[in-house]
Structures are given as structure tokens and as C-alpha cells.
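To the wet lab folks,

You asked to see what we're planning to order before we commit. Fair enough. Below is the target structure as C-alpha cells, and below that is the sequence we designed to fit it. If anything looks off to you, flag it before the synthesis order goes out.
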């Protein structure tokens, strides 16, 4: 045996096991092993002398470091960095046994975890270098040539099973990296359990770069505060999602679809006062309410709005309020092309009475009113100078509306598009789910075109002061077939979803009996499409499947891949479906009663709002549920003390907003959910209140009078006579010092000890929340509930630098595409309807 070779082996080794020179097996030795003389720093090798003993920090004559004492990882790392490459010993494991490294007998180890650990230590070393620089080498010491470190991609291309000894010698992890790998093995059970998510955490989000890391990739700048006051780790996914949303919309969205579905003037009949009366909501005035804005001393004035009227937008905070006449249960934004700078419209539907209730088990028909509200030109941090106004309304006889969805793209054309009479320029395509079991699709014109073409004679009296019309729809969607009658056997329709990818020709709907139906809106099949005498279409689904054992509460399409669909039902199940194999769901989760879901574009899962009637165990509120491919556990977004009726997500801002029965509208910035969210930091700082609605007693002397108790009744007339609603708005222009501000403290108090009174009418409850899907008005959020007061707020503080940079680029592209507004988009595809 060579002189100086240790006689004691650290660890156990099978006899006859020798590794070839330069091709060690990488067998790790545990530090602190009492059988190892050198403290477990390295394994002794028959071809290499062991480290002599000595005081910490000293080196032997041959340059090998002596035994170190109990030091911290940072000190050990700095000590390694202070040595020249010649002084750092090359340590290799012994033996070919399969013990701890997962390598086969006689083979090479799997070093993926060690590579990731080494990469982390190298990045940590770069951060510590300015603090402690390594000593400069002596003048007479020859400078060794710097060793080139090959990139990870090149190593992967060369193959992990290569037997090249030079490749092994090129990667020499220090002892700290081996120790980190051993700790990973103890936690995960095997080094192969290090998932792709661990590597993805090292990937920088797009548009949020930092200084270059050792591997050549840019490191995300996740330290310090962003200009809006949020931490950079919170805003990094926002910038990443903005650029990703813009790029994917260029691929998935279209400029022009459904060229045959053009609004025609003679299909819109304007109603007089007497004809419109049965369709109008019963309440002519709103409840009393006040608005208190953070940082502004209000005078405590009480407002009461007339039906279809609004308040002047606040000049500084930009918030909008208007009264629709009844409890809001359906709402959606009208999509516009990116960079169009067009007026923004919101479709709203409400019940006719404040106390109106419906049995979900039967079909209901009757008068209903679909309202289209114009909010003016909205941009990030800039609102409309004029009031919100009712552009026009559609009178229908199919019962109440449970859900409304606009076609995601390809339905908007410029208002000045040249149309020969009787055609009108099209604003969008709106699908509405009614309580009589049918789904109706309307082709909506621009309000200016409709006012210009208002030539229909009114039979009785003068026109209503608001433009209310009876409309001939372009298509009626029903479940069944041409052989089975017109009555729907599936019950009421509660939810809708357009296919998010062009040509948007599929539409899915969920029904009371658990059925999900999918229609092909462009079908030419005589078994699925029937032409009606009024020139409209009656469509039957090409695919129906029983998704749940009870009513389908919400249906949502995956925006990244139209083959996938998610449904939630009253049977407390969440099911992910692949439409190519509907015999069983991709994943089924039974956890709580879900009310609505939001599927953001870049993620493999959904954000779920829940009812707390079954949530006696575990946290209640808003969760992120993985579809099952990545195997992540549920991520708790925000706790809620009451039922969360609605949830909406913004792809541009990577943010979800939810309204609950307690009257609080809460928004939460999601982390990068492409990686495991269980290690997300600052989860408490990611959520914030938009506003809080409270129902307070109102004495005859006004709100400042003597204290009174709220009436315990479900009668609206008694509640509105003795109470008023107080809206407390948060200043959303900046989030500086946000954890210590009053809205955040109030929200945390509500999360801990909020009280829910079920023995009275929940006049402050929020039923519908919708984020604007448009780039121009990104950050605008509209909400409405039981009181019939719809409010719009601008989350100006969440605007990312990437989103602001995209807007002028999209405006330039829009001006090129639509600069000549004398012709509508896609004229070769348009075939005008024949005049009747």
C-alpha cells in the first residue's frame, strides 16, 4: 500500500469493487461518521493520499486542505473559493455498490441532484464574492488556465449514459454539494425524486431579468420592492403572464369569425313604454349607499340612484357605480381587439324582483332583460370622463339568465364599418343561458348603428326613453335531437363556455341533471342544424355526456388547449375532461361544494371558489387545484368566512378576484403555479381587498344618528327602509406599506372573526365578479350583487411594465389592420345576409 494511505475505510465497501481511473462511482460518505478519520469529508482512494490531520484552515505541504472544524456553509464555501483550482482536491467515491446514489453495480452515478445543488452554490458564491474576495495568487505561482464549464444543455445532448472519463472529470462537485444531495435524498427518498419543478424554480420569469448567473441564464430579480410597493417576487409572475398572454393570443385569437351572423335592423323591434314595462326590473330606486375611499376624507353623503342611472366617475380613483334594478346574477365584458382604444361594454342581467327566488329543479319561463352598459374608453390608470350609461337592452321571454358569455374574439368590427342597409356593424356575439333550458346567441350591433337604424314603427305610444328592443336571435341551442320535441329534459342551464381558440365554433353548457352538451355552431349537418321560419337556426349538440350526478355549477375551457374542459357540480366534485376520451375524466376531485372556477391561461389547473356549507374541516375560501398532471397539492389562495359566489381571473395580471356573501371583493396575485406552490413565500401579502360593502342601520336622523340594530327580515322593503350600504374602497394606485394600512388590517380581521347573519336579506352580498379580458382595459374589475348596484374599479397599481410596453405595440398593429375603416375585417370571408 502506498505511503500515507489511510488504513481505515469510511463506510462499507463490497470486496472486489474498484472504480476505473477517472470514472468514480460517486458513492457519498456521511459527514460526521465516527469510523472516518478525516471527519467524513471525502472517501479515501487507493490512488490518492488521504488528507492529513491539522488545524482548520491550514494546508499541508502538497496543498491539500487539512481537516476543517464545525463551520457554517457560507464559511466553508468561502474557504473553497479562496483556494486556487490546483489546491482544490479531486474527490471521488469508491466502490461499485448501489448504496445511496442509485447507480447500478459497476455503473456511473446519477448526478442530477448534485448538478442542481452545485448550480445553486455557484449562484450563492457569486452573491458572496463582493463581500469576501479570494486572495490573489502569488507572483511566482503560475496561473492555471481557466477551466471551461460546459452548459447543461450540451451535457444533456451528449447523453447521460456516456462512459467518457473526461466528462466525469469535468464535473467535480464539492463536498457541500454532495452533502446537499444527501439531504435531498433523505427528504425525497431518492435522488430521482427531484422533479422538473425544482429546475423550473431556477428559470427566470420572462421580462423580469437580473444579472447573469454562472450557468449563463439570467437570474430573476426577486429581491426588494417593485415601484408599486409590492415585493419583486410577487410582481415577477405578473410580467411573465403578460408577455405569455400576448403571444398566445396572437396564435389562438382571430380577427373575424362567423361572417354570416350579422345584426340586421328589421330584426330589432323597439318597444314603447307600455310594451317594455313587463320586462323592466321592479325597483325604480336603489338602496341608500355611501362611498368611503381610503385616503380621502368623505363628507358621508348618501346616494340613491334611479333605475338605469349612474354616478359620475371619481376624478381621482376612477370608480364607477350604476344601478341596474335588481339582483345581479349574470355579467360579462365585451371583448375588443388589443390596442383598439374602443369603448368598453359590459352585459348585465338581473332578476326582476329583489326577493325573487327560483327552484333549480324545474324549468321557468317569463320576462327577462339583458342590459348592455357603456363604460366609455377605459385604460390602465385612466377612466372615462362621462357617466356609465345604458346603451340598449334586449327583452326576452325565456326566464331568468344564469350565465352570459361573449365570443372571445373575431366578433368585433369597427363602429364605422361600411354596412349596407339593413345590416349594422357588429359589436359582438353574446350567448345567454336561460332558466327554461335553452341557450340563445345574439348578434349585438354597435349602439350608434342601432340608434341610426331605429326606423321601426312603434305600435303603442312613444319609444321608451331607454332603447329596449325585442330581438330575433341568430341561433337557439337546445339539448336533444330533431326527433325529441322542444322541451328540454336536462333542466335549467346554469353555465356556459365558448371554445377559447379560433374559430370559436364550439360552445359548452352545463345543465341541472349533470349533463354537459357541446354544440358546433358552424355545423351544416341536417341532424344538428334546423333552419327556422324567422331565418334563425336551431342547433342540437353533437356531443353530450353525463359529467356529474347533480347540477353542473360551472364549465370552463382550457385556454391553452381546447381539448380539455373542467366542470364542477353540486355533487362536490371537480372533474377534468379530455374531449377526445369522454368515457372517464382525466381527474376527479371530491372536496367541497364549488360555485365557480377560473382557468388562467398559463397554468395546468384552476382557481376554485367554494361554498362553505361542507367546509367544516380544513380551510375554506379560494383554492388552486392542479389538473393532476403535475401532482401538486391544493394551494390555498385566500380564506373566506362566507360563501364565495363568483371568481374571475385576469390573464394579463396573473390575478384572481372573488366576491362573497359578506360583501367583500378580494383580489389575489397568484404565484408562478408552473412550479410547486407549496413553497411560495409571502402568501399573506399576495391578497388585498378591492372594497368592502357593509350593511349598517340607518336611523330617521340619518346615518350619524342613534345606533339601531339591523332588521332581521328577508323582506327588501323593510331592509331598505332601515339600513344603508357603506362601500369602503381601497386606494389601488399603489401598494406602498400595504400590510400596515387599514384595508389590510380590516381584511385580516374579517378572515379571523367575520360574522355571517343568515336570518336577514344579505343586501351587501356580491354575486358576480368579472375581470376585463381586454389589453386596453386590463386591470378593470366590475362587480355586482344583491343590491343591484354594479361597480367598476381600476387596479392601476398592478399594471406591469411588460403590459404597458405591449399597449403601444398593439395600438400600432391595430392601426395597420383597421386603419381603413371603410371596410370591415375579413371582407373575402363575409357573405351578407339577403334582405327580407
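Sequence we intend to order:
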Amino acid at each position: 500500500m502506498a505511503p500515507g494511505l489511510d488504513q481505515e475505510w469510511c463506510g462499507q465497501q463490497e470486496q472486489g469493487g474498484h472504480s476505473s481511473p477517472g470514472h468514480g462511482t460517486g458513492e457519498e460518505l456521511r459527514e460526521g461518521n465516527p469510523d472516518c478519520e478525516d471527519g467524513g469529508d471525502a472517501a479515501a482512494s487507493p490512488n490518492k493520499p488521504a488528507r492529513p490531520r491539522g488545524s482548520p484552515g491550514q494546508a499541508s505541504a502538497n496543498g491539500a486542505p487539512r481537516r476543517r472544524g464545525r463551520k457554517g456553509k457560507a464559511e466553508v464555501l468561502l474557504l473553497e473559493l479562496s483556494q486556487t483550482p490546483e489546491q482544490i482536491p479531486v474527490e471521488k467515491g469508491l466502490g461499485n455498490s448501489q448504496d445511496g446514489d442509485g447507480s447500478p453495480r459497476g455503473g456511473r452515478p446519477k448526478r442530477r441532484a448534485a448538478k442542481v445543488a452545485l448550480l445553486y452554490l455557484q449562484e450563492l458564491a457569486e452573491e458572496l464574492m463582493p463581500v469576501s474576495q479570494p486572495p490573489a495568487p502569488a507572483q511566482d505561482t503560475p496561473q492555471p488556465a481557466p477551466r471551461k464549464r460546459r452548459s447543461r444543455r450540451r451535457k444533456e445532448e451528449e447523453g447521460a449514459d456516456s462512459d467518457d472519463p473526461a466528462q466525469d472529470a469535468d464535473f467535480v462537485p464539492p463536498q457541500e454539494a454532495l452533502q446537499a444531495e444527501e439531504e435531498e435524498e433523505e427528504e425525497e427518498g431518492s435522488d430521482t425524486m427531484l422533479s422538473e419543478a425544482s429546475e423550473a424554480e431556477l428559470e427566470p420569469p420572462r421580462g423580469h431579468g437580473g444579472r447573469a448567473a454562472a450557468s449563463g441564464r439570467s437570474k430573476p430579480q426577486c429581491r426588494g420592492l417593485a415601484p408599486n410597493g409590492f415585493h419583486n417576487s410577487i410582481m415577477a409572475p405578473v410580467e411573465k403572464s403578460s408577455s405569455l398572454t400576448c403571444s398566445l393570443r396572437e396564435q389562438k385569437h382571430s380577427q373575424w369569425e362567423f361572417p354570416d351572423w350579422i345584426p340586421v335592423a328589421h330584426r330589432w323591434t323597439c318597444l314603447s313604454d307600455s310594451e317594455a314595462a313587463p320586462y323592466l326590473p321592479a325597483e325604480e330606486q336603489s338602496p341608500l349607499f355611501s362611498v368611503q375611499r381610503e385616503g380621502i376624507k368623505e363628507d358621508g353623503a348618501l346616494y340613491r340612484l334611479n333605475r338605469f342611472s349612474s354616478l359620475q366617475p371619481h376624478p381621482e380613483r376612477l370608480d364607477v357605480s350604476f344601478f341596474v334594478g335588481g339582483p345581479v346574477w349574470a355579467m360579462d365584458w365585451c371583448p375588443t381587439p388589443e390596442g383598439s382604444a374602443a369603448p368598453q361594454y359590459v352585459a348585465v342581467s338581473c332578476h326582476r324582483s329583489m326577493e325573487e327566488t327560483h327552484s333549480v329543479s324545474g324549468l321557468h319561463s317569463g320576462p327577462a332583460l339583458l342590459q348592455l352598459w357603456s363604460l366609455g374608453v377605459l385604460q390602465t390608470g385612466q377612466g372615462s370622463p362621462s357617466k356609465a350609461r345604458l346603451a340598449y337592452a334586449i327583452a326576452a321571454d325565456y326566464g331568468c339568465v344564469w350565465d352570459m358569455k361573449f365570443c372571445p374574439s373575431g366578433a368585433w368590427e369597427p363602429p364605422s364599418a361600411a354596412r349596407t342597409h339593413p345590416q349594422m356593424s357588429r359589436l359582438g356575439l353574446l350567448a345567454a343561458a336561460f332558466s327554461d333550458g335553452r341557450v340563445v346567441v345574439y348578434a349585438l350591433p354597435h349602439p350608434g348603428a342601432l340608434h341610426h337604424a331605429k326606423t321601426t314603427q312603434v305600435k303603442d305610444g312613444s319609444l321608451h326613453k331607454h332603447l329596449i328592443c325585442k330581438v330575433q336571435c341568430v341561433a337557439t341551442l337546445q339539448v336533444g335531437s330533431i326527433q325529441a320535441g322542444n322541451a328540454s329534459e336536462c333542466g335549467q342551464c346554469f353555465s356556459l363556455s365558448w371554445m377559447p381558440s379560433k374559430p370559436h365554433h364550439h360552445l359548452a353548457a352545463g345543465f341541472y341533471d349533470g349533463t354537459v352538451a357541446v354544440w358546433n355552431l358552424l355545423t351544416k349537418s341536417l341532424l344538428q342544424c334546423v333552419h327556422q321560419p324567422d331565418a334563425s337556426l336551431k342547433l342540437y349538440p353533437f356531443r353530450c355526456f353525463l359529467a356529474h350526478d347533480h347540477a353542473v355549477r360551472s364549465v370552463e375551457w382550457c385556454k391553452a388547449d381546447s381539448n380539455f374542459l373542467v366542470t364542477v357540480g353540486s355533487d362536490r366534485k371537480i372533474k377534468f375532461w379530455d374531449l377526445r376520451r369522454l368515457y372517464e375524466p382525466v381527474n376527479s376531485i371530491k372536496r367541497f361544494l364549488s360555485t365557480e372556477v377560473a382557468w388562467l391561461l398559463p397554468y395546468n389547473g384552476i382557481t376554485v371558489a367554494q361554498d362553505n356549507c361542507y367546509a367544516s374541516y380544513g380551510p375554506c375560501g379560494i383554492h388552486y387545484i392542479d389538473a393532476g398532471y403535475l401532482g401538486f397539492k391544493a394551494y390555498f389562495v385566500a380564506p373566506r368566512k362566507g360563501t364565495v359566489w363568483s371568481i374571475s381571473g385576469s390573464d394579463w395580471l396573473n390575478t384572481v378576484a372573488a366576491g362573497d356573501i359578506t360583501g367583500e371583493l378580494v383580489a389575489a396575485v397568484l404565484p408562478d403555479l408552473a412550479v410547486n406552490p407549496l413553497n411560495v413565500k409571502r402568501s399573506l401579502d399576495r391578497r388585498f381587498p378591492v372594497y368592502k360593502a357593509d350593511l349598517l342601520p340607518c336611523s330617521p336622523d340619518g346615518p350619524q344618528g342613534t345606533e339601531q340594530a339591523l332588521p332581521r327580515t328577508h323582506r327588501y322593503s323593510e331592509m331598505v327602509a332601515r339600513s344603508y350600504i357603506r362601500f369602503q374602497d381601497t386606494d389601488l394606485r399603489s401598494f406602498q406599506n400595504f400590510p400596515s394600512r387599514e384595508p389590510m388590517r380590516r381584511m385580516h380581521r374579517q378572515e379571523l372573526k367575520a360574522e355571517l347573519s343568515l336570518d336577514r336579506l344579505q343586501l351587501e352580498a356580491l354575486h358576480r365578479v368579472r375581470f376585463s379580458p381586454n389589453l386596453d382595459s386590463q386591470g378593470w374589475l366590475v362587480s355586482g350583487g344583491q343590491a343591484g348596484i354594479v361597480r367598476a374599479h381600476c387596479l392601476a397599481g398592478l399594471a406591469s411594465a411588460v403590459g404597458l410596453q405591449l399597449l403601444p405595440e398593439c395600438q400600432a398593429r391595430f392601426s395597420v389592420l383597421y386603419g381603413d375603416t371603410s371596410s370591415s375585417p375579413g371582407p373575402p370571408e363575409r357573405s351578407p345576409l339577403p334582405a327580407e
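Structural context that might help your review: The radius of gyration is 33 Å. The first strand starts at residue 268 and ends at 270.

Thanks,
Computational group
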